[in-house]
From TrEMBL, chain A:
Swiss-Prot/TrEMBL keywords: ATP-binding, Nucleotide-binding, Transport
Superkingdom of origin: Bacteria
Species classification: Bacteria, Bacillati, Bacillota, Clostridia, Eubacteriales
Pfam short name (any one): BCA_ABC_TP_C
Gene3D superfamilies listed in its UniProt record: P-loop containing nucleotide triphosphate hydrolases
Originating organism: Desulfoscipio geothermicus DSM 3669
Name listed for the protein in its UniProt record: Urea transport system ATP-binding protein
Cellular component GO terms, alphabetical: plasma membrane
Start and end residues of each ABC transporter domain: 5-245
GO molecular function terms noted in the UniProt entry: ATP binding; ATP hydrolysis activity
InterPro entries per UniProt: AAA+_ATPase, ABC_AA/LPS_Transport, ABC_transporter-like_ATP-bd, ABC_transptr_urea_ATP-bd_UrtD, BCA_ABC_TP_C, P-loop_NTPase
Automatic annotation (TrEMBL), chain B:
Highest taxon above the source species: Bacteria
Natural source organism: Desulfoscipio geothermicus DSM 3669
Membrane topology: Multi-pass membrane protein
Protein name, per record: Urea ABC transporter membrane protein
PANTHER family: HIGH-AFFINITY BRANCHED-CHAIN AMINO ACID TRANSPORT SYSTEM PERMEASE, SLR1201 PROTEIN
Membrane found in the keyword field: yes
Any one GO cellular component localisation term in the record: plasma membrane
Location in or out of the cell: Cell membrane
Lineage per the UniProt record: Bacteria, Bacillati, Bacillota, Clostridia, Eubacteriales
Keywords: Cell membrane, Membrane, Transmembrane, Transmembrane helix
Amino acid sequence: MDTVLEIKDLTVSFDGFKAVNDVSTAVKKGDIHFFIGPNGAGKTTLLDAICGRVKPAAGSIFFKDCGDVTKLAEHEIVERGIGRKFQVPSVFNSITVFENMELAAEKKRTIFSTLFSKLSQEQMERIEYVLNIIGLYEKRFEKPAALSHGEKQWLEIGMLFVQQPEIMLLDEPVAGMGRKETDKTGELLKEIAKDCSVVVVEHDMDFVRDFASTVTVLHEGTLLVEGDMEEVQKDPRVIEVYLGRGGE
Amino acid sequence: MLEIVAKIKEYFLKRNAVISIIFVLLCLAPLFLSDFRINLLGKFVAFAILALGIDLIWGYTGILSLGHGVFFGLGAYCMAMYLKLESSAGKVPDFMSWSGLEVMPWFWKPFASAPFALTMAILIPVLLAMIIGYLTFKNRIRGVYFTILTQALSIIFVVLFIGQQAYTGGTNGITNFKTILGFSLSDPATKLSLYYIAVLLLLAAYVFCKLIIDRRIGRVLVAIRDGENRIRFSGYNPTVYKVFVYAISAGLAGLAGAVYVPQVGIISPAEMGIIPSIEMVSWVAIGGRGTLTGAIIGAVLVNSLKSVVSESFPDIWSYFIGITFIVIVIFMPSGLVGIYQQIKKVWRNSLLLKRKEAAMKH
């Protein structure tokens, strides 16, 4: 399979503390790629570095044929096709679900086009298509304040999906969800992975087991093991630092 | 033909009922009020233009500026320079010669033209806001830090204008105007015309703001308020939008200043200070932020209340205003318009309930 994203010797440090230390890995096209590891392993920081929220001290991140994206501003990285979802659901509460999707769907994002352009038929259809996938079509004219926690998470994932990114970065998308909602989210990710690669940071091991195609284990900022779930689970180092603790 | 009439009816009576009533009232006001009151109301109409701008940046985009007095003042001074030059009939304005200045400063000269002065009244605030906005928003200075910065801006300009007495008239400001475009400012007909021009400009400003918030850009502004990070990672550059909305609201404040001066007849650095700037924000808070009608109602109502109360209780009027402000902010965070909307909701629900009950009986 083709590589979409390649991380090379990436180091991110905060005042000398290396949150991510010399990590190299790659995300393949159409993969659901999980980053797991104990607290402080550097998972979220890794996502932050990919989407431009923090600037790495060393190393580079190559995306498709766009070259190194670490020099770009956040919104430029989004334009290249990298979408990012944060841990806490963040959607726009004072506009409707549909309008939330509309803001994400429109590719022209200058002042001029937000003043004068309207959505094309194609974009409308895409929004409706995504609203159906995330199960919020019926609620499209409601404001997100009326949605449940899970629905807000799906809305935000939908907002990423409607941007048509090549890769989607999700930070603990099932945190705070029940079993049923978690499974539904997993199915949603599978559906999304048909069109784009998905990178997930997650703690819920059942969720990882059920939906991961590749798993990368991080520990104290360094890459420990990478492979499919079975390989990773058997690895003695992983059992020691992560799975061995607390019963999982 | 009938269809068009029906559409117009629908537009003005149903969807924009409140704002239509406001403008009809403003237009009819001269029939009921004395010249003195109309002059006051004209001043409040100027304030309403400014309130629209503050609502755009604070109500919609969530950026609190406590330095809008500066933009208002700059607009007012541009207009005052024109009025002063016209009144001085080609000579050096009186306050300059009192300060020992015998030659007119170069930057005063073009203000002898009214169109130039009016353009500058809007353009200078816009440019200043663009520069300050770009430097602060680009460096992600937000929230209370931005607010403090705008207060500093206000102090700087007050000190600057007081200090440069020869050019600005110092603490006294610029006053003693006689004519505008050749019409005497003391003539009631001129005053009435100025009032209607103010109302017309308010309408134009309202339509302009409505245009912005009804487009997708309006949703982007609200999205910046609700989740700046989310909109950034949806591919928008918030800096550009924040600079845009700051510049627009500064431009409206400048226009308001230019409308204010010929009606009031004086502008001084006191109007640019921190206290007037905070007052401006309180109009929007009381009227209802995040609704354009709220901003207009707030500006007109609060100032009317202020003048009525200050006439009746000259000693303690400021306490009234303070208490009103506190009560409204604590108990009605969405302002007067918010209360109106809540009442409408309750009323509608009770109507529905009655209809249901009636249907059950049958």
